[in-house]
Amino acid sequence: MELIEIDKFWTLIHDKLEGWLESGVKHLPNFVVAILLAILFGIIAKFVGRGVRNVLRRTLESKQIADLLASIIKAMVLVAGLFIALDFLGLTGTVTSLLAGAGIVGLALGFAFQDMAENLIAGIAMGIRKPFQIGDVIEADKVFGTVQTINLRNTLVETFFGQIEVIPNKILFRNILTNYSSTGRRRIEVPVGISYGDDPEQAAEKLVEVINQCEFVINKEETAVFAEGFGASSVDLLVWFWIKYPGQTGFMQARHEAIVKIKKALEEADILIPFPIRTLDFGAKGGEKLNTMLSSKHNNDKGENSANDSESTPQSEQGSNNEPN
User: Is 136 found in the same domain as 192?
Assistant: First the structure.
């Protein structure tokens, strides 16, 4: 009885193995083709990744972003080849399960590393759009300086005080960013005040002539002086001129030289840059002027003093009359 059961057991195993063998032989061509497809897509991915990397390195400023994008494209080609090979073997359900699992894992990683992913995506987007390059002078989120390094997750900016600021890429991507190097020029504005006794037109002509004599001034036909308004003790003017930026002459040096030349030019033309002066005048709209008020107060004080003297005189005379002979 036991021998019969053992024979049945081995018969079942033999049938199962025979079925697997037949199935393996039947699917052997598909298996070979799937392996060849995987190898082929691996070779294609290698060449595609290398070609994309070379193109992106010439296009993008950051080599890290170029390498990352090339790696992503290479991985996509490999995954596509793997899915095609599995589908060729008839494992469609496996492919669907892998895609669903990859989506769930990607969603979980996205929530877990949301900040890092946002900086990474912002870095890739800026690498493609290129709002600034290494060496540009930018200002964003109260940081003003020169771009030193562009990474995948952050950008290093050296301020004009000599410190290195590490700015997350999402801040540069979200907020307003000013690139002072994109146009290659920058305008300098110098406010100056002249006295009310001087002619603003004469001062403007003199200042335009003097500013255009500076070697660092470009687009000299656009150099101008405008009257900005009436100040407390002066007519306020605004001097505009353009410089090459970044250039051999820095912004601070150019403004310094311009202010020095403006002062000398106004002194030579006998045009006064007044000190702050305050004049109190209460005569507007029917009120009394200050000198009238002071004069009236002086007269009143003088009259009171005279009245006090006259009151004290009779008492002294009366006292003298009452003295005995």
Answer: no
What is the DSSP code string of 67-115?
A: HHHHHHHHHHHHHHHHHHHHHHTT-HHHHHHHHHHHHHHHHHHHHHTHH
The domain that holds 163 is classified in CATH as 2.30.30.60
The H-or-E segment that residue 221 falls in is none
As beta bridge partners, residue 154 has: 168
Which residues 6+ apart lie within 8 Å of 124 measured at CB? 65, 68, 69, 152
Measure the CA–CA gap between 167 and 154, rounded to whole angstroms.
5
Distance CA 150, CA 154 (A): 7
**Cα 236 → chain centroid:** 31
Q: Whole domain around residue 45: which residue ranges?
A: 17-112
pLDDT tens across the length of the chain (325 residues)? 455 566 666 676 766 666 666 666 666 677 777 788 888 888 888 888 888 888 877 776 667 677 777 888 888 888 888 777 777 776 666 666 766 776 777 767 666 666 777 887 888 788 777 888 888 899 988 889 999 988 878 889 999 888 999 999 888 888 888 898 888 899 999 999 999 889 999 999 999 999 999 989 998 999 999 998 998 888 999 999 999 988 888 889 999 999 999 999 999 989 998 887 666 666 555 555 656 666 776 677 666 666 555 555 554 444 444 444 3
Does one domain contain both 107 and 22? yes
Residue 82, domain CATH: 1.10.287.1260
Structural domain tally of the chain? 3
On whether residue 3 sits in a domain, the answer given is: no
- What is residue 272's three-state secondary structure? coil
- Do residues 89 and 149 both lie within one domain? no
CA-CA-CA-CA torsion sign (253, 254, 255, 261): positive
Tokens of 45: 């991915």
